[in-house]
């Protein structure tokens, strides 16, 4: 049974959707150059607002377009990173000799795993994610990462510990 607060939040979100959805799709389409992706991300934006906002937060938003822009920009960046990751993977597959090319099923499983990994890494703060990827994908030593990121080796060690804790948390939850 919906509470009164949920009803108010639902009405506020519905009003925000009615007033700003077309504008948000147009804004995203200009950024992405693709109306379908823009519509998907706009929908994800409203879903994210509904699932993450405190009940009163939705109706307290004073500048809805600015708020929508912030949420949509983050989702758009995640979308573009996933697309880039997928394209890099598909490009590397094309370089493989035919005998070692993956089956369609293996490719689908691998893409799903990559998307899950991307979602996992997306939950990490930017600096932690950068250090983790430099170590695990690029094979850089902590000293090299520290130099590249202009932080101390101790900071890189903390970043890596945070990244590994997140991975462990996800593995234990699965």
From TrEMBL:
Residues 16-84 form the RNA polymerase sigma-70 region domain. Keywords: Sigma factor, Transcription, Transcription regulation. SUPFAM superfamilies: Sigma2 domain of RNA polymerase sigma factors, Sigma3 and sigma4 domains of RNA polymerase sigma factors. Pfam families: Sigma70_r2, Sigma70_r4_2. One of its GO terms (molecular function) is DNA binding. InterPro entries: RNA_pol_sigma-70-like (IPR039425), RNA_pol_sigma-70_dom (IPR014284), RNA_pol_sigma70_r2 (IPR007627), RNA_pol_sigma70_r4_t2 (IPR013249), RNA_pol_sigma_r2 (IPR013325), RNA_pol_sigma_r3/r4-like (IPR013324), WH-like_DNA-bd_sf (IPR036388). Residues 115-167 form the RNA polymerase sigma factor 70 region 4 type domain. GO terms for biological process: DNA-templated transcription initiation. Signal peptide: none annotated. Belongs to the sigma-70 factor family. ECF subfamily. This is RNA polymerase sigma factor. It comes from Comamonas thiooxydans. The lineage of its organism: Bacteria, Pseudomonadati, Pseudomonadota, Betaproteobacteria, Burkholderiales.
């Amino acid at each position: 049974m919906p509470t009164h607060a949920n009803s108010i939040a639902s009405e506020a979100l519905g009003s925000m959707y009615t007033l700003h959805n077309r504008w948000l799709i147009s804004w995203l389409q200009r950024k992405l150059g693709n109306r379908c992706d823009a519509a998907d991300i706009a929908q994800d934006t409203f879903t994210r607002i509904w699932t993450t906002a405190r009940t009163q937060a939705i109706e307290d938003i004073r500048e809805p377009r600015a708020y929508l822009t912030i949420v949509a920009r983050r989702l758009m960046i995640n979308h573009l990173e996933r697309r880039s990751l997928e394209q890099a993977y598909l490009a590397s597959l094309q370089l493989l000799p035919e005998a070692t090319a993956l089956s369609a099923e293996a490719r689908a499983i691998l893409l799903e795993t990559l998307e899950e990994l991307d979602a996992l890494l997306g939950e990490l703060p930017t600096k932690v994610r950068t250090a983790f990827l430099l170590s695990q994908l690029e094979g850089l030593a902590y000293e090299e990462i520290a130099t590249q990121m202009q932080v101390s080796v101790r900071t890189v060690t903390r970043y890596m510990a945070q990244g590994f804790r997140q991975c462990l948390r996800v593995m234990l939850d699965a």
